[in-house]
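Anyone able to model this chain together with uridine-5'-diphosphate?
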Amino acid sequence: MKKLISYVFPIYNEEGNIDLLYKTMVDLLEKHSSYDYELIFVNDGSKDKSLEMLIDIQEKDSRITVINFSRNFGHQIAVTAGIDTAKGDAVIIMDSDMQDPPKVSFELITQWESGYEVVYAQRKTRKDSPFKRFTAFMFYYVLDRLADIKIPRNTGDFRLIDRKVVEVLKQFEEHNRFLRGMVSYVGFKQIAVSFDRDERHAGETGYPLKKMIKFATDGILSFSWAPLKLITRVGFTVAGISFSGILYALAVKIFYPEASVEGWTFIVISILFTGGMQMIMLGVLGSYIGRIYVESQRRPLYIVDTIYSSSNK
Ligand code: UDP
Ligand code: MG
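re: yes, here you go
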């Protein structure tokens, strides 16, 4: 029996890419006929014609499953739903905008066949805007310094994971997901395959700045206690500065009582400074407490409206 490879494609407003993506995939799958394939498209609350287009190709191709979310749950959750549904011996996660070249996925399969359980595609080059590159660089730099695990640089979610890893990932119930961190965390034999990342074929990025900040926060807070430790350190520093301020104020009062009113500036600055510091530190605490709150609600990760697949007709 042939091995089954599952592809997972998260879809958010990709009407301009679905046809090309599907056509490219069909051609490639034909050329590599030594495997069976399953293509899972997760429609993450698209507002355009994506769902209609997906249902259309699903009706003609029994290898396709379309999972339609009841609303937009975000890229990481869409990928999770795909992984949960996949039946393959290996699961390949790819973006649907042609930025991750479909043909590279076969290089991932080759490495998998030689015994690796996680094969991640690493970008040699990328064609994103300077802003995106700069923010991505800063994010990975900070993450690298703070996180308790090593997350390979220049990787997205384009990767292949073995069935074993899929089963482990299914046990992760956290809501604020940072999949590439989770995949690093699980261990197993991992290897990189490098590739040149293309430009988005059509449409706009589904990651505006707001989503990028949420994503970066999830990455750092999920895999690091550093911000919490930082609170203590900054707390000590500020307390130290305040203490010398107190000594100064007392000294002025005792030795130069006539000049003591000059301390006004100093007082205002120190009050504002400590106040500001406290707000920041409360914010850090709040970020973690918020996560505890979300996890304690134990809500389902995503809500499926309909599944279109050949097996449930
Ligand atoms: N995506 C999604 N839900 C979202 C945002 C994006 O499923 O809320 C999908 C999108 O369709 C694409 C992938 O996630 O297949 C990566 O998104 P995008 O290309 O917009 O991100 P970028 O490449 O700009 O970082
Ligand atoms: Mg993209």
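The first helix runs from residue 18 to 31.
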